[in-house]
Amino acid sequence: MKCLLKQLLSQLDQVPLCLAELLEEFQHKRPSPDPELSTLVDIFVTSSKDLPSLRIILDGFDECDLSMRERLLKSVIPQFYQSGIRVCITTQTWLLPDLSKVVPETPCLQISADRRDVGEYLKANLRDGIKDELKMEIIRTISSGVNGM
Asked: What tens digit of pLDDT does each residue of 39-56 get?
């Protein structure tokens, strides 16, 4: 959340009042504690009102650890949607039921890799100096394991 907030603030002309107040509060505490996630989300939502075209991409949602996914699903993502912030989430299909519980009316677009596309990519990007037989074996092995990944 801190990274998202930092990216958002870099797009604004001035620091929002709510963040300036939080910084003032935390400046005098030693050691300086981290703000609660809910506080950071509130500041993000408040600050984002100045950027109506704001979009957030959460890539690799399935790669987050379980506790982080649960926190995002229970508080962050719903609050983003309720405030009108558009969110795009990429994930493996096994997490779609959890996401649809949080944001049920969200469109879902399935993208999957095609064996031929992967093969063409590998042909174009495998380094020169590899023997042709080895290149073909690498392409065959990787391409055959794609299965819509």
From this structure: 888 888 988 887 888 899
| DSSP code string of the chain | -HHHHHHHHTTSSS--HHHHHHHHHHHTSSS-PPPPHHHHHHHHHHHHTT-TT-EEEETTGGGS-HHHHHHIIIIIHHHHHHTT-EEEE---GGGHHHHHHHSTT---------HHHHHHHHHHHSPTTS-HHHHHHHHHHHHHT-TT-
Could you report the per-residue pLDDT of 109-124, keeping only the tens digit for each? 877 778 888 888 888 8
| Residue ranges per structural domain of the chain | 1-51, 54-111, 115-144
What token pair was written down for 132?
């042709």
- Look up residue 141 and give its amino acid: T
Q: What is the pTM of this model?
A: 0.67
Tokens representing residue 105 in the block: 């009316």
